[in-house]
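queue> holo job accepted (iron/sulfur cluster)
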Amino acid sequence: MRRKAFNLYSTHLKARFGGRVHKISIDAGFGCPNRDGGRDGHGCLFCSPSGSGSVGIEPEKSIAAQVEHAKSLMRRKYRAKWFIAYFQPYSNTFAPVETLRARYDQALAVDDVVGLAVGTRPDCLSPPILDLLAEYDQRSYFWLELGLQSIHDHTLDYLQRGHDYQCFLHQYRQARERGLRVCVHLILGLPGESREQIMATADEMARLQVDGVKLHLLHILDGTPLGELYKQGKVPMLEMQEYVELAVDFIERLPPSTLIQRLTGDGPRNILLAPLWSMNKWEVLNAIDAELERRGTVQGAKCRTILNCD
Ligand code: SF4
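queue> job finished
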């Protein structure tokens, strides 16, 4: 089998733990400051009613029950040995420190859970919360997952993110000062962004030497403000090959050390308006592999941070 031309997170996990490690998405009941502090309100233009969470989560169950249920499924399906509890939908640092501690502890107490991943917004962190996360980093294999989407403030305004790039930068530095691993979530193909602007985001991630990235394509979901704009013909969409080329351009610009946790996305099928080609996730991933091979390129080949460092 051909060696991957990029630094794949799952390969890293397997090497580090000596066996298959899978992430389990859980809904711990948090809200979001960008959705009126709860789960209502519109929030980000693209945010689904489920808070941009994964499909298949059963929020009515306790945290431990969600983890146990997913564990048994993943053991059967993937022969997974160990698990990372991923606090995914909404903003998973949006509560007092003691509430956060209690909920994170419930997940970490489940057998074979070796780590936590906590997804949140940059403006939903404070020094006491970052100190708490640093404790979990000492006790387990820990990732902070920060939603950013783009470094361009005009895009963040358009998306109604409710924070700017400086906010991200400040909290990113605070997290790194505490030794936290940070994975940054980004969307390729946002309305109003040129290829050069998308590559500026890639170059900035390289300059920051982020530990990990998740690259998403823009999903248009029914019932979201973006979905309404799409129906009015106001949201241009990428074709699959355009996305594939952007993703490969992006990968080439990242340092080889950055772990790539995601290269596409699979939005909830029942409310996905576009792009419908994204439903075939493996076709997209195979096309990215094929484009890397066609170019004879690898992650880091066009990394400005590396190319300019001597
Ligand atoms: S920060 Fe996340 S949960 Fe909150 S509105 Fe935006 S996408 Fe939705």
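queue> The chain has one domain: 9-307.
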